[in-house]
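Protein modeling request. Please complete all fields; requests missing the sequence field cannot be processed.
Requester role: graduate student
Desired output: 3D structure, token encoding
Chains: 1
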Amino acid sequence: MLSIIIGRAGSGKTDYIYKKIKALMENKKRENMIIVPEQFSHEAERELCQICGASVGLYAEISSFSRLINRVLSELGGLSDKTLDGGGRILLMNLALKTSTPVLKVYNLGKRRPDFLRRLIATKDEFKTARAGYEELLNAAESQNGVFGDKLRDLANIFSAYDGLMPENVHDPYDDLDRLCQLIDMSKIGCGEIFIDGFTDFTAQQSAIIEKLMKKCENMTVCLNCDDVFGTETQFEIQRETVAKLINMSNRAGCRYEIKTLHRTGGRPEALDHLEKYLFAGSKVKYEGEDNSVALYISDTLTRECEMAAARALRLVKESGCRWRDIVVSVSDWNSYRSILPGIFEKYGVPIYTYDKEDIIQKPVFALVSSALDVISQGWEYEDVFRYLKTNLTGVSLDDRDMIENYVFKWNIRGESMWAREENWSAPVGGYSDQTGDDSQVLERINEIRKITAKPLYKLALRLKKSNIAREKVFAVYDFTEEIGLYGRIDEMTRSLAEAGQLQAAAEYSQVWEMFVSALEQCASVLGDMEIETEEFVKLFKLMLAEYEVGTIPASIDCVSVGDMTRTRRRRVKHAIILGASDDKMPAFPQSEGVLSDDERDRLAQWGIELSN
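Delivered output (613 residues):
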């Protein structure tokens, strides 16, 4: 039996599921599952325990489509297989593009830029989620003339090369849902009731899994944020299409379906109801009530806007008695606020957690490895050497670093022959114009610092030159980090940050070493025993490092959640502060990350391949 529960936000759809779970617990029925989007899973687990009690784990669990595959593989076997991460994928796509170049007509070797590789990966992911493979792409290409047909053939060849170059016992993460679909019937998933909540629509991969579960489980409940199946409001158009797709699935699966509509039972401010009803309705209807639950503020600068938001959060806590965790600050364009907002909220004493993932290449650990490779490949230039030293992870103190930097800058020291030579540097510390004092001790210390700095870098350079095998070069990079004691310094820095109360920064550092080791493993798996010159290896390894992002979970439960609207994932919010709510920013115009235009996507849809648009 398929139950489709529809209703506007706040109508009680999620609470309906929790009541059903409590009833199943009372009847001692186990193996029930609630599937939610990945970003909602942590909050949903907490809510489920609060409402149903600590013993709910015996009867139901929260999962997501991406986590289901691990559940199935832990039951049936296969967890030992490695999965490509962002770094491994861009490395493999680079090789695929290079390998397939001779047969390409639109995309050639000159387009192997990082941003283009990312767009190719995004396009491949779209075709994968649409369950369109090599044959479907070629068939679509045959129906198209001109450049578009050539483009589809190129994509088919590139994606085929990508799959063909995949190392043994390694798979792409976007293959997980297809694997899950094949294994559902052999697993225990679906033995209890299935609940699906928090989605607006489903990809072709997800739809295939839902249909499989629909055939297997006794009851399935799907909740959608929609006013009416036969309504006309444009903001619910996608959900109404999803309802129609679910009904078609139930017909194919041979199970009955029902549609229930839930309505709000009061308790919500009238102003919010009015705003929800008319914000995107296209008609201007003035609110005549006296409810002040919605307030509009206008500011002339971003700084003033952030100050007003911080002051508003303080006032809410002091006057209404709410907790920091009851407040969410949602930003329409986080990039514009990233450098301003955290500092202002800290100044006002407002604790925050930012839903943000940072480019890890700027973090000291990855910056150290990246700059070390630059030192070797670009001739030991001044900028590269001191970018390496300024990561504060090399064992050279700040005073020693400043001392040798002043000396190197004064004498314009460059090149491996100067840094790695056996003879000591002997030029006067103060320059030829200042030879009044005895600087032999200072010069001796400068040479000690030089040797501490240059020795591991020079050994790494020799190892990279010695072998043209990619895997050996990866081992050389790892041995370099072992020699300089990188792991120990990361651990020490993590503990220092935690003791200083910088819990989010400490959490970020605790992830970095594992990410770096993962990057080495991915590089060794993808490149393997391929012969490669050092210059090309450095280029590819740095390309891979740039793909990693670091994110954290809140270090404290009681803090204000801050972030971009696309990343802020809170369902039960008491107070929402929205920044940057201008017509040009909200709602944001969707930008495609792939290589296909909207017109080309429409043409593919006519052929039966529906990509995101």
